[in-house]
Amino acid sequence: MQGRQLLVKIRPPLNMLNPIVILQSIVSGLLMGGIFALFGVGFSLTWGVMKVINIAHAAFGIMASYIAYWGLTLYGIDPVLSLCLSLPLLFVTGLLIHRFLIQPITRSRDVVVASMILTFGLAIVLENIMLFAWSPDERLITTAYSSQVIFIGDIIIKVSNLIGFILSLMGILAIYLFLYRTCTGKAVRATWQDPEGAALQGINLRRVSMITFGIAIASAGAGGVAMAYMYSFNPPVHNLWLIFLFLVVIVGGVGSVIGSAIAGLMIGLITGLSGAFFPMQWVNVLLFGLLMGILLIKPEGLFKK
Amino acid sequence: MQKIIKSIVPVSFIFLLAFLPILQPPAYFLSFIFKVFLYIILAESWNLIGGFTGYLSFGHVAFFGIGVYTSAMLFQHFGLSPFIGAIPSGLLSSAAAWIIGYPCLKLRGPYFAVVTLCFVFIIDLVVKNWTFLGGSEGIHLKLLPMDIQLSRSIFYETFLGLAVASVLVARWVQHTKFGLGLASIREDEEVAQTLCIHTADLKIKAFILSAFIPGVAGGIYAYYISYIHPDIVFDINISILIVLMALFGGGGSWAGPLVGAVFLSIVNEFLSIFIRPEFARIIYGAMFIAVIIFMPDGIVTFFKKWMGIRKIQHSYTSPVDKEK
C-alpha cells in the first residue's frame, strides 16, 4: 500500500492545459496528417473510380520506402531524389498490375470483394518478397538533417517531418491539378461520378482506370517515403498503415481528393492531441473506435454533400 | 438406401481418423492434423456469415480469442476444466457477436469488412493493456497431468469431434429454410426484404452461430497452447487465412471451406518444411491471385463444373443462379 502511494507521488504531474504542449501537439499532428493524406489519396481514387479496394496499397508504399532507404545507405542519394526513380517504376508497375490482374476480375459478380481478396494475395506476395530480400529488421531513414530541428518560439519542428509534409502537399497538389486541369483528369472524374455515362460519352474506361491505378500506386510510393521520414518501417507494418488508409478514406469520403486531404489533417490532429492527453497505447484504440463510430453513423464520409 | 451407401465413405473415413491415435503416430503428426481440424472449424464457421450470407467478416479471430481468454480465466480463477469452460467461452463469444453484430450488420460490403477488422484491433489493444487479463505478458496455464502423447490424443479427438460437428452444422444450415434465407441475402438483400424475409433477424442469427463455434474451439485451444498471448490468439493473419481458405474452396457450400482448409494447410506445411517459409508465402499469395482470376467461385465449383457434374448445382446455388 505504501509503495503504491509512493509511486503516485513520484510520478511528475502532467500539465495538460499548458498552451505550449497543446500547440506543439497540434503542429506535429498536422505535419503527420498531411502525410496520411497523401498516403490515402490514391487508395481513395482506386476505390472511387474503379470500385477496387487495393489492400496492397500500403505494401507498395513500403516498397518505395525500401528503395529510398537503400538509395540512401548504399549510394547516399537523398530520399526525395530517389522518388525520381521509384515513382516512374511504381507507375509502370501499377499499369502492368491493372492490365494483368485487375482487368480479368472487373467482370466478376462482386468486384469489391474479388479485388479485396486478389490484392490481399498481392500484399502477401510483396510482403514476403521484401522479407526475403531485406529481412524483417526495423529500418529508419537517417539523413544528415534528420536530427535538426527548427524553433518557432517554443514550438519544435523536426526538419525531416517538415520535408515529408511539404512532399505530401506537393503530391496532393499534383494529383489535384491532374484531376481538375487536364483532359484525362476530367475523364477520371467523370468515370468516378458515373461509369456508364462516361462510357457513353466516348471515354475509354479501360484506359482511364489503368492510368488511375498507375497514379494511385505512384502516390502510394510518395506517401510511403513521406511516412518513412517519420516512422521506422519493416515489411509486415503495412497492415497497420492500411488501417490509417481506411480511416482517411472513410472520414473523407470515397474518391474525393479534397476530402482525403482534410481527413488526413483531421486524423493527424486527433492523433497529436490525444497523444498529449492520453497514454500513448490508448491512442490507437481511440482512432479505431473513431473509425467504427464514423462507419456506423455516417458510412458515406463526413464531407459528402 | 442410396443415402446409406453414400454416407459409408465419409463415416468410415471419420472412424479411421478417430482410431489414428491408437497407432501411436509421432506427436508432430498429431499436432499437424489438430491444426488442420482447427482451420476446418474456423473456416466452416466463418462460412456461415461470410460465404452463405456474403458479409465478409475479417474479425472472426476476435471470437476465437475471446473464447481462449474466457476459458483461460475460468481455469485460472475457478479451476474449471477447459473442456467444461468451452461452453461459457462459446456463449461469451456469441454475446460479443450479438453486441457487435446488431449495429454493424447494417453496413455492407467493404464497410462491414473494415468494421470487423477494427474490432479485432481494438480487442487486441484492450487485452494487451489490461493487466487483469495478463496484459502483454500473457497467461501461463498448467499442463495436463499426463504425458504428451496422451494429451495430444485427447485434444486430437476433441477437435475431430468439433470439426465434424461444424461441418454438419454448415451442411444442416445450407439445406434448411434458414440457409435459403441467407442465400437470398447474399444474392440481393433488397429483393429479399420485399419478399418478407427478415434479413436483419437472419443475419444476426447467422453471425451469432458463426461466433459460437470458434468460441468453443478457442476455449479448448487455450489449454492446448497453455501459454496465451494477445499476439498469438488475436493474430489478424489467422482471420485473413480463414477467409482465404473458405473462398479458396468456394464460399457458397459446406464443402468449400473443408476442401480449402485441408488443401491449404497441407500445402502451407509442405512448402514451409521443404522450402523457405518466405517462398512458401509467396507461392501462397500467388495461389490466391490465380484462384480469384481463374476460378472465382472456388475450386470445388470449378472442379465440379470441369468434371461435368451438373447435378450438384441445385444443392447449393440459389434459385436466382439456377435460371441463368
Topology of this protein?
The complex is a heterodimer of chains A (305) and B (324).
Chain A (H helix, E strand, L loop, with lengths): L1 H9 L8 H32 L6 H19 L3 H24 L8 H24 L14 E4 L2 E4 H23 L1 H11 L1 H6 L4 H26 L7 H15 L4 H21 L5 H15 L8
Helix pairs in contact in A: 2-6, 2-7, 2-9, 2-10, 2-11, 3-4, 3-5, 3-9, 3-10, 4-9, 6-7, 6-9, 7-9, 10-11, 10-12, 11-12
Chain B lengths: L1 H18 L7 H24 L9 H19 L3 H23 L4 H20 L10 E2 L7 H27 L2 H11 L1 H6 L4 H27 L1 E2 L1 H4 L2 H14 L5 H20 L2 H18 L4 H8 L6 H4 L2 H4 L2
Antiparallel strand pairs in B: 1-2
Helix pairs in contact in B: 2-6, 2-9, 2-11, 2-12, 3-4, 3-9, 4-9, 6-9, 7-9, 11-12, 12-13
Structure, explained:
The complex is a heterodimer of chains A (about 300) and B (about 325). Chain A has one domain. Helices cover about 75% and strands about 5% of the residues of chain A. Chain A has helices spanning about 1-10, 20-50, 55-75, 80-100, 110-135, 160-180, 185-195, 195-200, 205-230, 240-250, 255-275, 285-295; strands at about 150, 155-160. In chain A, helix 3 packs across helix 10 and helix 6 (about 160-180) runs antiparallel to helix 9 (about 205-230). By secondary structure, chain B is mainly α. The interface of A and B includes residues 53, 108, 113, 132 and 239 of A.
